[in-house]
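Ticket 4471: requesting a sanity check on a complex prediction with oxa(dethia)-CoA. Repro inputs:
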Amino acid sequence: MRRPSHRNAVLIGIGAYVPPTRISNADLIAGGLDTSDEWIRARTGIATRHIVQPGVATSDLAVEAAWRALESAGTGEVDAVVLATTTPDRPCPATAPDVAARLGLHEVPAFDIAAVCSGFLYGLATAAGLIASHAADRVLLVTADAFSTLINPADRSTAVIFGDGAGAVVLRAGHVDEPGAIGPMVLHSDGAHSDLIEVPAGGARQRVSGTEPRAEDFFFRMQGRETYRHAVTRMTEASAQAARLAGWSMTDIDRFAVHQANARILNSLATRLEFPPDRCLSNIEHVGNTGAASLALLLAQSADSGLLTAGHKVLLTAFGGGLTWGATTLIWPDLPAH
Ligand code: UT7
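Returned structure tokens:
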């Protein structure tokens, strides 16, 4: 029997999780970091972030968010698990099969995606591809990062920004016109700037270089100002492109979900796109930059607080290491509160 050639991915469930330990700006200063509450709030918009305790890894966050997403979708059954993360539990194997097994999803295909803070959008595109190709009818996409395990606690340019967390969505095969259908996807990368966000050691390059890595090379590092410049330009372009492909003007859009990297970046995007700032979703004040988890965590928390409701036209955009970036659209579906 000949099958229809295209099936859309439709979002039917969402869940999120942040570890219970919350670190305020004052806690960072009390721990000896050379910074101030005023600087952090003014330059980033962040007041607190959550971090994992020793012994807790990315898969633990991922499983918590996944349970909540499956419950929201009203199912325990999916045909594939995709995990987007920058902080896998181990360099090998991927963390997704472990997450799938702990969810009781034995023998489903499960793999990781490394797109740093663009992980949710790259993950959505991957899940949509699995569905379109009939490899899966339902996909669990989990995004989880435990950046605190990579951050140099003495590096004030990253220690104040990053937090740990996870978000997950369930997608099923459906029709392009349904609420929850993932819209046209815009994805890009530019590896010429891969050094702007990196963990230099721990991979094959360092092993073949013949020199011992320095201890600090195992930490995450970011060239903040240059990254900021790219983030604003790239997300502005991608957002405009995704809205255009969806046939939406900026005034059609009810909610703008931007990767929560820095509150000033959100404001710049809103200004450049002439988008009303009060329609921009934001949770950065309370969770900081949670990497790959950022967008799903933002959507889940916004839906929980009632800021994002069924029927809202949502524009999503993200930017991260790689460099990678992208944007897409969806009409928010009617999901049970969790
Ligand atoms: O998620 C993936 C994508 N990530 C991003 O898009 C993040 C983009 N970048 C940023 O959000 C910002 O660049 C940062 C928040 C990382 C840094 O803010 P900035 O305003 O760009 O600061 P800067 O790096 O240009 O540094 C300005 C000054 C420097 O001092 P001098 O050289 O002017 O004396 C820094 O040493 O601010 C200093 N500084 C700090 N001061 C107090 C940097 N970090 C801190 C700090 N507290 N935490």
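Notes from triage: The chain has two domains: 8-174, 186-331. Leaving this open until the requester confirms.
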